[in-house]
Amino acid sequence: MSRTRLARLLAAGAVRVNGAVLNEAKARVASGDLIEIDIPAPEASHIGAEAIALDVVYEDDHLIVIDKPAGMVVHPAPGSPGGTLVNALLHHCGDSLSGVGGLKRPGIVHRIDKDTTGLLVVAKTDAAHHGLAAQFEAHSVERSYLAAVHGVPEPGDPRLRGVRGAAFEPGGVLCITTQLARHKTDRQRQAVTFQGGRHAVTRARVIERFGHPAAAALLECRLQTGRTHQIRVHMAYAGHGLIGDPVYGGRRKLSQKALSPAAVSAARGFGRQALHAAILGFEHPVTGAALHLTSPLPADFAALLAGLRGDTLTEMQDRVNS
Fold it and tell me: Which of 106, 163, 189, 274 makes an SS bond possible with 148, Cβ 3.0 to 4.6 Å?
């Protein structure tokens, strides 16, 4: 169990030492003492279960990995009281949830934005929740995202040499190291800072270039840390905001000289940030087995890339089939 859960049980008088109730966490115990803990049955969550279809990539008694679609919020909030991933998981898992933190609910250890697609792991037990949280805290979880961005972050770009916190590593990998904190005037946004905030490191490499000369790119972005909106903020800070990002994308437009009208139209018509959580790798928190899971590009993202390439309908279908 987590320290927080144990502290609550202590405060509730559920712990006894040699038959006497113990409610002082700093009390000393001695060799031979008998410690008893009364663990109450998990309470039902106040969040309602909803019959929402889920794309399950992996599931066992301890955890579940979901391929989340665009438009789905992970956890209920004032602006999204229902229709969330948690509502769907409560219905899907039912009695298989053993009571994370004393409640029958899924354990959310990381999140992806509402309009970001891809892989998300959720704990079904306290043991899995604690083990997964420890791996995320230690930054040992492999997380790889695909992102379509404005421009191309090239090692030869003199502008990037002047961006504080940005540097190129071997293989042309752009590494962005900053602090992230809430925006001073817009509390819904995150902003780069170098005083205070939380440490954030993103690495990005170019997979494909679009246009002549290149005006957009498909990147693989790997997270060393996992802060709110991290990839979106870091790429915008570097001058390569995500296509379709309504918050951090800015007013940058794709060059109509470098790209065909169809390619420009495809980018303009993309109604969300072009970001997909494609790879998730971690050690199973209970069995110790190595898990490496992948998610294919969703149809709208694949269509965006086809439009940027200038693919014909037949070529688009061939790429999807392959």
Answer: 274
Helix (H) or strand (E) holding 21, with range, is strand 20-21
- Pick from 121, 86, 119, 120: which is nearest to 105 by CA? 86
In order, the DSSP letters of 162-186 are TSTTEEEETTTEEEEEEEEEE-SS-
Active site residue 113: yes
For residue 314, pLDDT over 70 is answered with no
d(CA 114, CA 134): 24
Question: How many helices and strands in the chain, by DSSP H and E?
Answer: 8, 17
pLDDT number for residue 313: 47
Q: What pLDDT band is residue 318 in, cutting at 50, 70 and 90?
A: low
Question: What does the angle CA 235 – CA 240 – CA 246 come to, to the nearest 5 degrees?
Answer: 80
Euclidean distance between CA atoms 42 and 101, whole angstroms: 8
Q: Which of 67, 113, 245, 311 is catalytic?
A: 113
Q: What is the mean pLDDT of the chain?
A: 90
Q: Is 53 exposed, middle or buried (0-12, 13-18, 19+ CB in 10 A)?
A: exposed
pLDDT for position 306: 96
User: What is the per-residue pLDDT across 120-156, written as a single tens digit (0 to 9) for each?
Assistant: 999 998 889 999 999 999 999 999 999 999 999 999 9
Using alpha carbons, select from 149, 182, 164, 104 the residue that is nearest to residue 276: 149
